Amino acid sequence: MIVERFFMQTLKVRKIVHHTAELFELQLERGDIRFKPGNCLALCKDQVESRPYSISSGVTEELLRFLIRIIPHGEVSSWLAKRQPGDEVRASEPFGWFRPEQVKPEQDSVFIATGTGIAPFLSTLRSSPERPPLACLYGVSLAKEAFALEELESLANFQLAVSRDAAENHFHGRVTGLLTQLPLGPQIHYYLCGLDDMIDEVSEWLELHNIDYTQIHREVFFYADEAR
Amino acid sequence: MPMKHADNWLVTSKDEKRGYIQPQLLHEFWFHTGTSCNLRCPFCLEGSKPGDDRLQFITLDDAIRFIDEAVALGVNKFSFTGGEPFVNPHFTEILDYALNFKPCLVLTNATEPLMNQFARVKEFNSKPHPLNFRISLDHPDPAKHDESRGKGNFKKALDTLGRLYHAGFGVSIARLMPAGENSIAVDRAYEPFFRQAGVPLDITIIKFPEFYKPGSLPEVPEITEDCMTRYLSESQRDGFMCNYSKMIVKQNGQCGVYACTLVDDDADYNLGNTLNQAITERVRLKHHRCYSCFAFGASCSEGGCEDAKEEGQASA
Fold this sequence. Notes:
The complex is a heterodimer.
Chain A: E1 9-18, E2 23-29, E3 40-44, E4 50-54, E5 63-69, H1 75-81, E6 88-91, E7 108-114, H2 119-127, E8 135-140, H3 149-153, E9 158-162, E10 171-172, E11 188-195, H4 196-208, E12 216-222, H5 224-227
Parallel strand pairs in A: 7-8, 7-11, 8-9, 9-10, 11-12
Antiparallel strand pairs in A: 1-2, 1-6, 2-5, 3-4, 3-6
Chain B: E1 20-21, E2 28-32, H1 60-72, E3 77-81, H2 91-98, E4 104-108, H3 112-115, H4 118-122, E5 131-136, H5 142-149, H6 153-166, E6 170-176, H7 183-188, H8 191-197, E7 205-208, H9 225-230, H10 234-238, H11 241-244, E8 245-251, E9 254-258, H12 275-278, E10 283-284, H13 288-296, H14 306-310
Parallel strand pairs in B: 2-3, 2-8, 3-4, 4-5, 5-6, 6-7
Antiparallel strand pairs in B: 1-10, 8-9
Helix pairs in contact in B: 1-2, 6-8
């Protein structure tokens, strides 16, 4: 008597907004899903293939939004990119272990993201705009790849780092080139999301600057050697 | 209420009486925290992956009922497995509650879900009972470990192993045991990594043979009543996990007590909704993973039930 799985739900595609050839925003009807900023849903291509994607929308928004990069030979991302409004996508319940909104009242946060790793931070900012981070650093390869730039620029201490083209008004280089500008302190929690190389480098830098391991929170979205 | 089982529960395909274990103790009680995991390992015996819900997250309310019942029945320790336990959003609350009563063991991949909650974990040092962690380091070769678990995850797990030890927690590791290996040599190959992490070189290494994915039906010899007495001694039979432990899993919104940690893909091993109901149920060795216990003495437990016997625990 083999126990069957259950509990997956079906959500309708509202819209797909192509951002670049490799990046798009997937908008799904929300149904009765309740989530916390930083949560993911596993989206399924079929009974076998599923991938987790972080929600980028706020907790009170009508739609669920996801920022997705089409991975070369990635079965699920390229399948999702071809969905049409009204198509159905099977999804898991929300889950996650990266919770940027979880800082205590007496604590502050700093967000550092690369690529679509900005998604959990957008969800946090859209859900709790009254508690912005002390700083938000966002790294992309090309300026056109940056999501929600105007929204992020309204933050007091936001900086975009563009590594491959020189964009006006933005730092030219890797996001790690901005680390010396970060506020440091025992009451600040550092949330890092995106490329593994960035996360490792920033974690090491923070520990070298006497930031305790327990103040550093990580979420790896991509591996550098796969992106090359 | 007697449990209903499939027709092949009592007899083998050759119509011989199937081997069984008659449970004697409740030494260790396991919680399956759910099959959702942050990793997607191709060999996972639970088929766990991100968002997987074959086994659902247990909640604090689910756990409290069973912890209280197990304590009343004289349990000696609580153990937690997944999936990755720290992916379960209720897990630290459950652990916090369980540590009020008995020592706890957590099986973990020691990557982001635990790393991101390290501050909370450190607080468990002040609980009345000790907390131990068993960390998966599949091979004494980072590249081979990362091949299945994802790039960089050996380094993360090793780093977390050291941090947990230095924070005052007990640590051990679990590894894979390919057929025909030289086990002593493989164990020794971990020593440089243990030195690097700053942990003692003699920490416990639990070895697991190939268990196959949930629902698999690999061909293994069937275990008869005769096999159990002809090839195994009484103490070997006592060493079967189903003799001294049980596990709670949550499926379809309901918690059930299973015979051991390795058979949750077969509803025949769901022994009821309460420990009292499940504790004396005879366990037939029908599952292909039962053969691993028979042939290799595989056990998810550390120390078996010997310590319980020495303490003279009353039979259940």
